[in-house]
Amino acid sequence: MSDFHLVRRADFSIRRLIICYAVGILISLGIGALLLSGLGINPFEYYKRMLTMGLIGNRYAYKCIEGLLKIFVPLLITSLALGLAFKMRFWNIGGEGEFLIGSICAAIVAFNSGSMPKIVTITLMCLAASLSAGIIGLAVAALKVRFNTNETLMTLMLNYIMLYLIRYLGSTKAPWNFFLNPESERPIFGQFADNCKMGGIKIGNFTLLYSVIAAIIITVIIYVYLKYTKQGYEISVVGDSSATAKYAGMKVGKIVLRTMFISAALIGLASGLATATAGTISESITNNAGWTGIIVAWLAKLSVPAIFVTTLLISVLQYGCQAAATQYPAIDSNFADLLQGIILFSVLAADFVATFKIARKGGQEK
Amino acid sequence: MINVITMFLFNIVVYNIALLYGTTGEIMIEKSGSLNLGVEGTMAIGAVCGYIAACRTNSLFVGVLVAFLTAGLTGLVFAFLTVTLQANQNVTGLTITTFGVAFYYFIGNGLSNSKGGWPKLNDTTLADQFRDVEIPLLSKIPILGKGLFSHNILVYLGIAIAVLMWAYFAKTMPGLKLRAIGENPGAADSAGINVTRMKYIHIIIGSGIMGIGGLYMGLNMGGTFEGSNCWINGYGWIAIALVIFANWNPAKALLGTLIFGFFNTLRVYNATIAYNFPNTLGWLNKIPAQFFSALPFIITLLVLIITSISKKNSSNEPASIGRNYYREDR
């Protein structure tokens, strides 16, 4: 090894990157196929079932698309929000916690909404969710800016504090606890009234939820925000080097506070939409979006269009595994996580091949 | 009533020693300057592989060895990606957790649905090897003896690892070198230390130790596989919190395990205790169990904030933690 050393490639080629990624994903699917064969399952049949999500020859195919979109929407917004913070080199790994607190606050609105019209309640739910999550994010950012507290570990701890908070609400029978279903002996979360449930546009049998439209609008806004506004430019400068940003006269602290607030508030918004769509809360409302979002944002190299595509692919993977699980009892939906992990490992390796090259020491460098 | 105290002490140790394994393993990795958020997944991989190996061979020793090796292999993946390939540590670690827990379910569900079924622990020679061993003399102390000095062999191994690791960091040359790398890898490199090799070795050993902790969790649960609940059950995350609480010191990790274990056990036993001592401790019943579960994370959050606010820098956090070392950037 001592004769060789690593050199960053001077030229960046998008073609090389895509080829490396494609090879990486193929290798991951190959490893997955080996594992499946180990259990005596034909991997081709499984993959076919997974990737088609049981759509083919299914009279209720529109239900599959609706189910897929229910995974897609929160994951998309969460990944975009996390990407925003990561771009600034701010390690917001508290997506789960921010999602949960948002969900709790949306539920507070929903359970006390009385008979307000649907558009008002859902707007208020999303607002409450965004604000509560945003405030948590702001507090973390303030500690980071003022005292340089480690934000990775802080947000990590908050994830679990929020998880136990929602567990507490879900398992404590008390007169004050309006979250629970009053008719049930066992503590279970209540259902929202109809004026708190997400509506949509009917297209034949298929219902296109308004949350899907909201998610697409948000994607476009974030794309424009990052690419064409001064604030978006500031985020990338702070991410590249906060010293440079300081010399350029930017108020780094203010940028960090603002971006982290937006990041956490967006996760809250995702949570508000998901909570209204589900029509109830639970500790599994996040569907691991806070964790998966980190993988998505990283796989997509924090680029907005790539996050959109990656989220779609990961949602197909997750929903497909759920759909295939009905056919293959030995493999539950955790197989999606397994594949996701292997894919990220190979993509991280592919990333390396695309950005570094091995050069001989003393040899001529091109 | 005396029995309650003895039981309480016994349970603090027996249900929480896995935390000590996770924590000491993570301390070793963090001392080399890497933050591995994959503790939960590494423990899950070590647990499932070690348990199956132990049941197949009926040997606890083989189980421990396999748990160490498979978890060490996971550590090798982390080291290869972050040290050699310069991948981001947070993302790699979190992916190891996602992957590891999914791997646990994959193997578990696969075996449960196969012809042989999931291997059982009951009434095997393996269960016999995992029985409690009393330390002569010490275990005869009233109240404390049964609680603290009558445990299975893996409890003693975990404590031995913590003590040895403390001595390794504090008293030996390689330990000193490792700390130097964690503080400033560039300077350590200039001083002729092979940074890459040291990082690899310690990430692999640290991960291996976590794996033994995972196996311990599985054996302690009686080895039953449930499709909905992972054996590790969040202990990996508490271990990451405990590293901060213990201020990156394996000896303090021992103490921290007892403190966090105290809360864990209180969560399970608060009703029993409130019943046995109604006059003095009756109020315990009013505290919700979820509060005790959240307490390790709340305390760690406070420790993080307070140590960063206090002017006096008393934290032993390795300075280069979380950042990859790329020699050409030096």
Describe the structure.
The complex is a heterodimer of chains A (366) and B (330). Chain A has helices spanning 14-38, 43-52, 61-87, 95-111, 118-147, 151-171, 210-228, 230-240, 242-247, 252-278, 289-299, 304-325, 334-355, and strands at residues 4-8, 200-203, 206-209, 356-360. With 366 residues, chain A is mainly alpha-helical. Chain A has a domain at 76-294. In chain A, α3 (61-87) packs parallel to α7 and α8 (230-240) packs across α10. The two termini of chain A are 20 Å apart. By secondary structure, chain B is an all-alpha fold. Chain B is built from 14 helices and two strands. In chain B, α1 runs antiparallel to α10, α1 crosses α11 (235-245) and α11 packs parallel to α14 (289-309). The longest helix of chain B is centred in the N-terminal third of the chain and has 30 residues, at 2-31. Chains A and B meet through β1, α6, α11 and α13 of A and α4, α11 and α14 of B.
List the helices and strands and how they pair.
The complex is a heterodimer of chains A (366) and B (330).
Chain A: E1 4-8, H1 14-38, H2 43-52, H3 61-87, H4 95-111, H5 118-147, H6 151-171, E2 200-203, E3 206-209, H7 210-228, H8 230-240, H9 242-247, H10 252-278, H11 289-299, H12 304-325, H13 334-355, E4 356-360
Helix pairs in contact in A: 1-2, 1-13, 2-12, 3-7, 3-10, 3-11, 3-12, 4-5, 4-6, 4-10, 4-11, 5-10, 7-8, 8-10, 11-12, 12-13
Chain B: H1 2-31, H2 39-57, H3 60-84, H4 89-112, H5 125-129, E1 132-134, H6 144-148, E2 150-152, H7 153-171, H8 173-183, H9 185-190, H10 195-220, H11 235-245, H12 250-276, H13 278-281, H14 289-309
Antiparallel strand pairs in B: 1-2
Helix pairs in contact in B: 1-7, 1-10, 1-11, 1-12, 2-3, 2-4, 2-10, 2-11, 3-4, 3-10, 7-8, 7-12, 11-14, 12-14
Q: What is the residue-mean pLDDT of chain B, rounded to a whole number?
A: 88
Helix content of chain B: over 70%
pLDDT under 50 segments of chain A (min length 5)? none
Number of strands of chain B: 2
Q: Biggest interface: chains and residue counts? A: A-B, 53 and 52 residues
| CATH fold group of chain B | ABC transporter involved in vitamin B12 uptake, BtuC
